[in-house]
């Protein structure tokens, strides 16, 4: 199974390379409305789905927006690779170290940034490219949440995790992992 996303999918219908343009759909000369000391987020991020061999998926409840459940996510810092960002976010959000077990799913999705988060990006940025990773654990681990980002975490079976996850990309990544785990015969999901 080829999990690579062709570079041609990085283009939006207008032919703008969203990775090269950092997702902007405006002229570079357009002034930003954010304060001078604030560094806007890059519209390139990672999703790290943490799950156990028994088929339990970790979801965390975000502080903002209210009611948003997700796996580990975060934007890339300038000059940071998706793998390095995935490892950094995994440690920051859960306390887990995953260097030896992090799986690059060689998948990415382009999605519109929800309005609640658009103020974090440059003016005119409305799409984000998300790169997918996974961390498969032999059993549940104690999660040390970052209280500025998440208020609660749950280990859930796939059906319940799919119901609770707020992002369609998060649900799609979990479905892919459940399918791969089931087809490999590694563990029940």
Please describe what this structure looks like.
- Helix content is 22%, strand content 28%.
- The chain has a domain at 7-26 and 38-54 and 71-149: Nucleoside Triphosphate Pyrophosphohydrolase, CATH 3.90.79.10.
- The strands form two sheets. A four-stranded mixed β-sheet has the order 4-1-6-5, sandwiched between helices. It has a three-stranded antiparallel β-sheet with strand order 3-2-7.
- Mean pLDDT is 82; it is low at 1-35.
- The radius of gyration is 17 Å and the shape is globular.
- The protein has helices at residues 82-94, 115-118, 158-164, 168-184; strands spanning 44-52, 56-62, 69-70, 72-75, 102-112, 127-137, 150-157.
- Strand 2 and strand 3 form a beta hairpin.
- It has 189 residues and is an alpha+beta fold.
